Each structure stands twice: as structure tokens, then as C-alpha cells.
Amino acid sequence: MKKPNIVILGAGYGGIMTAVKLQKSMGVNEANISLVNKHSYHYQTTWLHENAAGTLHHDRTRIQIKDVIDTSKVNFLQDTVISIQPDEKKVTLENTALVYDYLVIGLGFEAETFGIPGLKEHAFGIKNINSSRLIRQHIEYNFAKYNNLKNPGEELLNIVVGGAGFTGIEFVGELANRVPELCKEYDIPREKVRIINVEAAPTALPGFDPALVEYAMNSLESRGVEFKIGAMIKEVTPEGLVYEKDEQRVEIPSNTVVWAAGVRGNSIVEESGFEAMRGRVKVREDMRTPDYDDVFVVGDCALIINEETDRPYPPTAQMAIQQADTVAHNVKVLARGEKELEPFEPNLQGTVASLGHDDAIGVVFNDKKLFGWSASVMKKVIDNRYLLKLGGIGLLLKKGKFNIFR
Ligand code: FAD
Ligand code: NAD
């Protein structure tokens, strides 16, 4: 019998965990498994805000795919997906094309720009290793430039972060730690630097526990973060950011506007003809697309409705990792010619968000609230647990976060 071709697109949390699960559960002769990713490495998206602020080197965040993939079972192709042709069971890559019997789409997220003028052209985004490294280097360049100009402007030292969701809050938390170091390094008085977080909703972290939100804002404000709450970003220009609050238009001069105000699924999904909402396919309970029995979606490109709230589950790494278990199981079942597919049932353990290296907030284990150092330790435990799951003790020791007293 011909071995089925299983193709996995993207080596983010969802894609790489699907590959790792399949390599553990299927024999070498059962299927041809291919994993396609733009880069030779998997990166921990959940650490990118640290790379962007410069509090963690990006080499800690990236993991060579060949270090976690068994290449005798999974063929890794470093290439870029251009489009998917589900009716022909074909994927077009930049350098070649692949045919599949079963496809897993795990192409991750992009920034959702909501058509805001100037955003694409003038704002930075915490999207991947390269975009995060650019933010770090850009901030440092502006600090370095400051003391080399006769009349330096405030735009060099105003760092504006759009959105106070979890990404925005985690990023300003890292900046609050990093800026004092940069000030020392570049001979700049701390009071000259502004870290400004602009949020449209009436509160930071809308929908999260109000007491923990208050804790987070107090902690960040005490370290020099300014919040503009109820402030809708309207435009980004070469000169800075424009927001509207109480019907007033306010401009903040800035060379460094970082957009952290929303994500969508990879646009390749829609462009390939899959029915999607902001790049996310509303999958069946077995994680397959509504229209194709041989196409699964995992991670941020998948949309699942939470029956209790009647709203989509937020796209998270936690969801992507759990979905990978179901996707890998179901792909294996189909590849073996069996029929019993299992439904995906999320088992969410809570949310923990960092506020810098030794502070955090979280709700875990059925509504237990954590804040401060204990939440920060919990965040590192979560990060380390993922490394263990992905690459065992070796990867944990190589890339784990152990310095809880940093
Ligand atoms: P991604 O992690 O986005 O990976 C997609 C992969 O596909 C990448 O390797 C990319 O290179 C590859 N790819 C993309 N396009 C192509 C192409 N055309 N061709 C080939 N390869 C391609 N969630 C949590 O649960 N906990 C957290 O603490 C947390 N913190 C976060 C912090 C930040 C700063 C951000 C931005 C997000 C955070 N999230 C967190 C959300 C979480 O990171 C995402 O939900 C998760 O990364 C989604 O995983 P994924 O597998 O769908 O794709
Ligand atoms: P988000 O959609 O969760 O938050 C975006 C924020 O930007 C919202 O508060 C929104 O009100 C605000 N916003 C939108 N448009 C705006 C505008 N024009 N002007 C001002 N503010 C505006 O996006 P995110 O924070 O990037 O998170 C993306 C996903 O990743 C979410 O599912 C999140 O839960 C997850 N995540 C989780 C963690 C964690 O668990 N620690 C950390 C980061 C991200």
C-alpha cells in the first residue's frame, strides 16, 4: 500500500508539536511526514517581547528544528508557503510544490491593523525573531543618536506601544526593566525617556480580573510606564502616533511606535480560498476545515467557539499545543485508514502574564489569583514545561528559565 503523504505547514507551537507527536506515534514505514517552515528554527513566540525589549537574547528563543525533529521520520523543508490548493491537494512553496493526502495548516498569526492609516508603513510589530530584533536595535540606535545631535528631539526617546492587551502589557513590563539599563549605557537621564501604552478600551487588559489589572498598572506605573486609557489609535505617521480620547486628537512624537493591538490568522489561509474570519478557519470539532476532510488547522489559524461564552477562544500558545495532540491523533487515525476521530476539548489551565523579569499576574487552577514574584515563578514553570514537552530534559537544560531571583 502507498504510504500517505502528511504535510505540516509552519513550525510554530501547533505545527512543531503535531510533528513531534506524529514522530512518536507512527512508524517510519507508515507515512511520509513533511514539516515546512520559513526558517531553520522554531521560535517561542511567547518570549518575543523580551527579545524586542532587549532583556533576553533571541538565540534563547529560537530552537533549531533539527534538534527536536527525528529526521528519519520527519522530512524538514526550509521553505516559504505561497499558497494552498485544497482541491488539487497541493501546496505551492517558494522553491517547490508538495502534494499531500493529509494537510495540517499551522501558519500562525499576523498583526491585525484594522485599516488604520500609516500603521503598516510606520509601526513596528512583535511578530517573529527578525521583527523583534529590529525593535531592539532600533530603540538602541535612537538612544545612541540622542547624544550625537545638537538639538535632539523627544521623538528619539518616546517609545509608544499600541494596545494594552497581554502582548502590550508584557512588552512595556520588559521595557520598564530595560530602559534604566539603556539610560546608563547611553548617558541619558531616565526622566527623558517615556514608555507610553495606548489602549482604546476603558481599562488595560479588558476582560481580565480587575484586581490583577489594577496591580499590573500600579506596578508598571511605579516603574515609569504611562497609560493612555480609553484612547483610540487613529493614525501612525513618520512623526509619531495619533490617538483620540474624549473627542480630542492627541499626537505623540515618536520614532518608535510598536503595534501590539491585535492579531489575525495568516492571510495565506483566506487567499487560498478557505472560508475564514480574520484568517481563522472555524474548524469542526475534530480540527478539520468545514469543507475538506483531509485538511486540519492548528493554532492561531483555527477558530473555536467557547460554548459557555459564545465567543471564540483567544488564540494562545496553550490552545495551539493542546490542539496539536488532537490533530496528530486524528491525522494518524486517517493515515492508518481508521475512522474514529476524537474531538478537541480544551483544558485551559489559566493565564499568566509577565510584567518584567520578577513580576507577573495570573489566574490559574480554577480562579486562583497570583501576582508578584510567585506569578513570575509560575510563568517560568509554564515556559519550562513546554520545553520539556517539546524536546525533553536536554532542551529544557539548554533553553530553560531557571534564574528565578534575577
Ligand atoms: P506561530 O507561533 O505564530 O508560528 C507560526 C510558524 O509558521 C512560525 O514558525 C513561522 O515562521 C511559520 N510561517 C509563517 N508563515 C509561513 C510561510 N508562509 N511559510 C512557511 N512558514 C511560515 N500565548 C500563551 O498561551 N501564553 C503566553 O504567555 C503568550 N505570550 C505571548 C507573547 C507575545 C509577545 C505574543 C506575540 C503572543 C503570545 N501568546 C501567548 C500567543 C501565542 O504566541 C500564539 O497564540 C502562538 O504563537 C500561536 O501558535 P501557532 O502555532 O499558531 O503559530
Ligand atoms: P489582544 O487582541 O488580546 O489585545 C489587543 C488590545 O489592543 C486590546 O486591549 C484592544 O482593546 C486594543 N486595541 C485594539 N485596537 C486599538 C486601537 N485602535 N487603539 C488602541 N487600542 C486598541 O492582542 P494581543 O495582546 O496581541 O494578544 C494576542 C493573543 O495572544 C491573545 O489571545 C492573547 O491572550 C495572547 N497572549 C497571551 C499572553 C499570555 O497568556 N501571557 C501574552 C501575550 C499574548
TrEMBL record:
Keyword Oxidoreductase: yes
A biological-process GO annotation: aerobic electron transport chain
UniProt keyword annotation of Secreted present: no
Keywords: FAD, Flavoprotein, Oxidoreductase
GO molecular function annotations of the record: NAD(P)H dehydrogenase (quinone) activity
Residues annotated as domain FAD/NAD(P)-binding: 5-324
Domain of life: Bacteria
Co-factor requirement: FAD
InterPro entries according to UniProt: FAD/NAD-bd_sf, FAD/NAD-binding_dom, NADH-Q_oxidoreductase
PANTHER family: 64 KDA MITOCHONDRIAL NADH DEHYDROGENASE (EUROFUNG), APOPTOSIS-INDUCING FACTOR 1
Family, similarity comment: Belongs to the NADH dehydrogenase family.
Protein name: NADH dehydrogenase
Source organism phylogeny: Bacteria, Bacillati, Bacillota, Bacilli, Bacillales
